[in-house]
Amino acid sequence: MCAIAGYFGGNFSGETGASYLRLMLDHLNHRGPDGNGILVNGDVGLAHARLSIVGLADGSQPMVSTDGNLSISYNGEVFNYVELCQELNRKGHNLKSGSDTQVLLTAFGDKGLDCLPDLNGDFAFAIHDRTRQRLVLARDRVGVRPLFYTHCNGAVFFASEVQALLALPGVSHELDPIALDQTFTLWCPISPRTAYAAIKELPPGHVMVLEAGMQRIHAWWKPEFPDRSDVATDALPENQIEELEALLVDATRLRLRADVPVGAYLSGGLDSSLLSALAAKIHGHELRTYSLRFDSVEHDEGRWQGMMAESIGSHHVSVTSSHDQIRDELPTAMSSIRQPILRTAPVPLQSLARSVRDDGRKVVLTGEGADEIFAGYDLFREAKARRFCGRQPSSARRPRIFQRLYPYLPGIQQQTPEYLARFFGIGAEDLQDPLYSHRPRFRSTASAKLFFSSELRGILGNYDAAEELVSQLPDDFRRWHPLNQAQYLETRYLLPGYILSAQGDRPMMANAVEGRFPFLDHRVVAFASRLHPDRKLKGLREKHILKEVARRHIPGEIIDRPKQPYRAPDAASFAKPRGPDYLRTVLSPEKLKASAFFNPVAVGKLADKAMLGEIASFRDNSAFIGVLSTQILAIGMSDSLSNCENGISPNHVR
Amino acid sequence: MSDDTKAILRAFIVENFLFGDESQPLTADTSLIDNDYVDSTGILELVSYLEETFGIKVADTDIIPANLDSLARIAAFVDRKQAG
Fold first, then answer.
1. Which residues of B touch A415 (CB under 8 A)?
2. Is B15 on the interface with A (CB under 8 A)?
3. How far apart are CA A253 and CA A365, in angstroms?
4. Tens digits of per-residue pLDDT, A260-319?
5. Rounded to an integer, what distance in angstroms lies between the CA atom of residue A417 and that of residue B64?
6. Where do the domains of chain A lie, and which CATH numbers do they carry?
7. Interval B26-49: pLDDT, tens
8. Domain at B2-83, CATH class
9. Is the pLDDT of residue A199 over 80?
10. Which pTM was predicted?
11. Given an 8 Å threshold on Cβ–Cβ distance, is A415 in contact with B69?
């Protein structure tokens, strides 16, 4: 796992190109501390920073094919490289199976872009074809590995992280107002848009071909579901449980392949517990597991983590996060996340990744993805409950179902059915709306736009992020079952745009730790898409089939425990500051006026409320973290925050 | 009394739920839920404020949009409670 960077085209010398490559590498070395290399060939430049995991001795990059025609810079892993290598050798190649980079390069040489569906892996790569004079950029199916690009000096520049591109001379650091509106509605920008106006992202499952002055981008994979009338009902549940178990075992087995030891994140929930149990069995020797704990009872899952670690006999490492740590480390976290966030959840994940690194490990399995593909999130249950109420909007009894959904939220428990019905939009919403499942979340998130400045509102005019989302939905979306529609929205947008990036790749790679996601193996994803919705969400019981598999491997208490979404203390982390700190600087009226994104008076009152520890509502929590994280990006990064009074150029709204 | 109550309530809502932003629409009949001014925790905050400020007791069954979802409704509710 590594970082890549490069360019194609441009009116500059090879020497200048090499200096650009080195400049970008300077901002990517945290991802690949084990070595780096650059390659300049005419108007193409490739760079690579390496974290050695597979093919320790012969995996140096950029790598050139034996005939000298193709060169590659590649970030990620192709987990089935052993099988692909055997297949290529059967066709007459003579590859050693030591390096997945060589296998990928050879597969591409044979089949071009048609090799992509053969790859089981998480990757972002650039391959230059000298004969055809073209550069191909590609990204894995669901967006585990990042890839960003920008246009500068007549060339297309690309890199694994935004900050490498921001380092290039002439690339604007201005935040994009539309992306801000999208984040304050959907939680993340809609790709290819990023938080920065000058920088785009290659969307997950897409390729970009640069050839003869043209730039073409197209999808090579997308999430798909059967038509509503076509969902499979014939397969026996027992057979499906067997099939899923076999798939998960194989997906985990492939992801344990590495020339260095692989550990596992263990949150104490169903998904990571199941993976850890499978990994411990396949591994055959002691697995190392890593957990995050909190100093607040509300967020801590230590009891379950301990129970699970004992059950599989892992060597367990836990690290405890505190309110103070979240406050102190937010600026550092923002320097790698590089997009506004509405929750502090990504911040403690940096310490978790650091604990893996400190323990001498480079690779961990994680359970992310299961909630999206097996319908684990509360949102899916809530949408089903809302439809149930929406069919009888006058029922006084039905809205009580929401109290069953959210036993851990006192605000919901203490409501009358009349208020519950209003809060969940019963009777007021169109059951045919393609965004039906997500409307309450989008609406409550967007209420934090109350804090937008009049300047920003002026620029945004009537822009509607949800409407843009609707305009992007595939043609067959409306034919899918409502649960599959909701799953598509999660899998296509929030998963890559926030979960796999702000809570995944960035905090991990800031510590040179590679995450691997067995639930996102494309065979598992395809299996889950084909399942009848009732096998995923049975009544209001989430991840039904996965729980059936889990029953064979982990203690029943873990499976039947109340679901606890991963959360960290948000605004509460910023209560009662001990002295002058960055908060007062980035949220000062001067800095708010300078960036011009937010209303200084309203934010001043919000910050006062936060510092008194009096923020309780969802909206105010999201708004506070959203404003603070945006201001950190707009005003300057962690290393400059201490002296941001002294002329760090502010990032204006225009 | 009702006008005074409305003015006091308005100031509370502007300060607490709109963070002093007077530019947000807030007439006597503006719905607090439909405009996302209050959420489920906000309602509880409002109830606690009404009890403390106006010396009334709000029963669980009183917590319904018909009583609390606009300035006019809250003011009328407070008046009824104080009279009763």
1. 40, 43, 63
2. yes
3. 11
4. 889 999 999 999 999 999 999 998 778 999 999 999 888 999 999 999 999 999 999 999
5. 8
6. 2-219 (3.60.20.10), 228-373+492-560 (3.40.50.620), 571-641 (no CATH)
7. 999 999 998 889 988 888 889 999
8. mainly alpha
9. yes
10. 0.93
11. no
Instruction: Measure the CA–CA gap between A312 and A277, rounded to whole angstroms.
Output: 6
Compute how many other C-beta atoms are within 10 angstroms of the C-beta atom of residue A616: 18
- What are the angstrom distances between the C-alpha of A69 and each of A104, A108, A116, A133, A209? 14, 12, 19, 10, 17
Give contacts of A453 with chain B, Cβ < 8 Å: none
Is the CB of A450 less than 8 angstroms away from the CB of B24?
A: yes
Q: Which of B12, B35, B41 to mutate to test the interface with A (most CBs of A within 10 A)?
A: B41
Residue type, A108: F
> Distance between CA atoms of A174 and A165, rounded to whole angstroms?
13
Closest Cα partner for A6 from A111, A152, A206?
A152
Pick from B37, B45, B65: which is nearest to A419 by CB?
Answer: B65
Shortest Cα distance, chain A CAs vs residue B65, angstroms = 6
Express each pLDDT in A441-473 by its tens digit: 999 999 999 999 999 999 999 999 999 999 999
Confidence of residue A570 (pLDDT cuts 50, 70, 90): very high
DSSP symbol at A493: I
Place of tokens 């057979």: A239
Q: Is B25 touching A (CB cutoff 8 A)?
A: no
Contact status of B20 with chain A (Cβ, < 8 Å): yes
CA A124, A129, A132: angle at the middle one, nearest 5?
135
Average pLDDT score over residue span A29-49: 92
pLDDT tens across A245-255, in order? 999 999 999 99
> Is some CB atom of chain A closer than 8 A to the CB atom of B66?
yes
DSSP H or E stretch at residue A310? helix A302-312
Which pLDDT tens digit goes with each residue over A104-143? 999 999 999 999 999 999 999 999 999 999 999 999 999 9
Residue B30 · residue A382 · CB < 8 Å: no
Where would I find the H helices in A537-577?
544-550, 556-560
Q: How far is B36 from chain A (nearest CA, A)?
A: 6
Which chain B residue shows the shortest CA-CA distance from A604?
A: B19
Taking an 8 Å cut-off on Cβ atoms, the answer to whether A617 and B15 are in contact is no
For A290, the 3-state DSSP assignment is: strand
Chain A residues touching residue B18 (CB < 8 angstroms): 450, 602
- For tokens 């002439």, what's the residue? A170
Interface contact B3, partner A, CB < 8 A:
no
Tracing tokens 């994009």 back to the chain, one arrives at A176
- A·B CB contacts under 8 A: 71
- pLDDT tens per residue across span A312-343: 999 999 999 999 999 999 999 999 999 999 99
A125 near A102, Cβ under 8 Å? no
Q: Could B43 and A599 be called an inter-chain contact, meaning their C-beta atoms sit closer than 8 Å?
A: no
